[in-house]
Amino acid sequence: MLDINLIRQTPEIVREALEKRQMDPSTVDQVLTLDEQRRVLIQSVEEMRSERNAVSKEIAKMKDKSERQAKIDAMRGLGDKIDSVDGQLSQVEADLQSLVSEMPNIPDPDVPFGVDDSDNVVLRTVGEKPEYGFEPKPHWDLGTELGIIDFDRGVRLAGSRFYVLSGLGALLQRALIFWMVDVHIGQGYLEQYPPFMVREEILYGAGQLPKFRDNLYHDAEEDLWMVPTAEVPLTGLHMGEILEEAHLPMHYTAYTACFRREKMSAGRDVRGIKRGHQFDKVEMYTYCKPENSKMEHEKMIKDAEEVLSLLGLTYRVLLQSTGDLSFGSHKTIDLEVWAPGCGEWLEVSSISNIGSFQARRAGIRYRPEEGKGTEFVHTLNGSGLGLPRTLIAVLENYQQADGSIAIPEVLRPYMHGLDTIGKS
Hints:
By secondary structure, the chain is of the alpha+beta class. α3 packs antiparallel against α4. The longest helix is centred in the first third of the chain and has 37 residues. 37% of the residues are buried.
């Protein structure tokens, strides 16, 4: 959430940010109008309450019953007026909160203007696209022929965009998850195993609600929401807390299954297992002091790149444009891996510096060792990495002429020593 003081004092900065995100800048004027109404109503209520308190003291000293009753009757009318203005104030505050909660984060000055993801800027490419003495197959053919991906049974169980990983396919997915968590622990992250369902206020704090309500799964009876990413419970982990400066930065990693309706991606990436309503992801998350968030962003990018390097995969690093920047992000770096069977680059990580945007929504502060008061922390998040696209990259990059899949060396201890997935 944006600081109301920022909107109040520098509205032109917020208007420009909304325009860069192709949003209506007049929202700023609506916020300013409601903010002014709110302050006028607060002043009015405070003046009336002050008057009521003063008269109450007078009434307590009055001895004439008729005069006293007249004052009491007058105060009843004032009390009704206070109640009326309080009601107006509550409505204005609710409208103001609703508007501000749907305003996105302000892009970093480094973020280039763009209309959509086609305007993202490639910063560098690491590795060379592999060459084969045969025509590389896409994962939907490889997985079916090896009997490790079952599309038909997935659809039979749950409908479109679901599949079943079977046998060594399931083991390879699990190996990737366990190995990635271990890599991040070695990089200094503390593993968490959070719930896969959270309360509504946790999603609000993470910036998922109210913006993405239609893209989330909700259990109405228990009023719990399935997590779209581990970023959500990791944000909620310290919601409403005041952290000690000595404990910062705090680095977390977590595996969760993730659930999204994918309404916003209708018609995209429907072939294979690139995009589904349920998927797995290993997340990295950081709480830090504001002055260190740029440095922590670089660390997180480096840590995610290390995972790709250890897997021996060709990848590229992109700077997201304003047209692709997520609602809560200040600046985001994408990592895309080359999938030779699909013949395309697949995004496996978006690593974002959120600044104080989530911390302000979730009420997460820290107490500086020197100085008074508290400040909002900065939060950062990134996939390290996301599945199933990392699984796709392994299958397609490590395929061999006979249709088998060589297991990357780093995963073999997690695959019971197997070095190949072949036809059974």
